[in-house]
């Protein structure tokens, strides 16, 4: 594979659902672990949103509700979504997730 001689910054959004049975301490600990993982893999968090506990459309792992979060991230590492997928997959506290790349128009901030 040819080596790139330029840096490309990509914008991503990562939406994940935590178990509703977690205490606030456990939620904050899990969020800090996710932040550290993103930073270790070369990402920068632009914005975090807590959407709160919402009813799921269908039961997931015997849960009817989940606590939703969204992170808006920039990174020049194209492997960041794969690293996040792996982290989310091995975490018992995350019951569903979705990572996707966002197209940003020139001249606008993410």
Explain what this protein looks like in three dimensions.
This protein is of the alpha+beta class and about 110 residues long. It has one domain: Ribosomal protein S6/Translation elongation factor EF1B (Alpha-Beta Plaits, 2-Layer Sandwich). Helices cover about 25% and strands about 45% of the residues. The protein contains two helices and four strands. A four-stranded antiparallel β-sheet has the order 2-3-1-4, with helices on one face. Strand 2 and strand 3 form a beta hairpin. It is elongated and about 45 Å long. The relative contact order is 0.30. The mean pLDDT is about 90. InterPro entries: Ribosomal_bS6, Ribosomal_bS6_sf, Ribosomal_S6_plastid/chlpt, Transl_elong_EF1B/ribsomal_bS6. Keywords: Ribonucleoprotein, Ribosomal protein, RNA-binding, rRNA-binding. Binds together with bS18 to 16S ribosomal RNA. It comes from Hydrogenobacter thermophilus (strain DSM 6534 / IAM 12695 / TK-6). This is Small ribosomal subunit protein bS6.
Q: What is the total tally of β strands?
A: 4
Question: How many separate helices?
Answer: 2
Helix content: 25-40%
Q: Tell me about the largest β-sheet.
A: 4 strands, antiparallel
How far apart lie the N and C ends?
30 Å
Fold-level CATH name: Alpha-Beta Plaits
- Give the domain tally: 1
Content-based structural category: alpha+beta
Say which CATH homologous superfamily is assigned. Ribosomal protein S6/Translation elongation factor EF1B
Specify the CATH class: Alpha Beta
* Average pLDDT: 89
Radius of gyration: 15 Å
Unreliably modeled segments: none
What gross morphology would you assign? elongated
Architecture, according to CATH?
2-Layer Sandwich
GO molecular function: small ribosomal subunit rRNA binding; structural constituent of ribosome
InterPro entries: Ribosomal_bS6, Ribosomal_bS6_sf, Ribosomal_S6_plastid/chlpt, Transl_elong_EF1B/ribsomal_bS6
Protein name: Small ribosomal subunit protein bS6
Family: Belongs to the bacterial ribosomal protein bS6 family.
């Amino acid at each position: 594979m040819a080596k790139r001689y330029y840096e490309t910054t990509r914008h991503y959004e990562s939406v994940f659902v935590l178990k509703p049975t977690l205490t606030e301490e456990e939620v904050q600990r899990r969020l800090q672990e996710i932040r550290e993982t993103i930073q270790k893999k070369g990402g920068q968090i632009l914005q975090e949103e807590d959407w709160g506990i919402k009813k799921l459309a269908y039961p997931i792992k015997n849960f009817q509700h989940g606590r939703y979060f969204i992170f808006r991230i920039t990174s020049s590492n194209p492997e960041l979504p794969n690293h996040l997928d792996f982290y989310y997959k091995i975490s018992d506290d995350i019951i569903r997730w979705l990572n996707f790349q966002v197209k940003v128009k020139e001249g606008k901030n993410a």
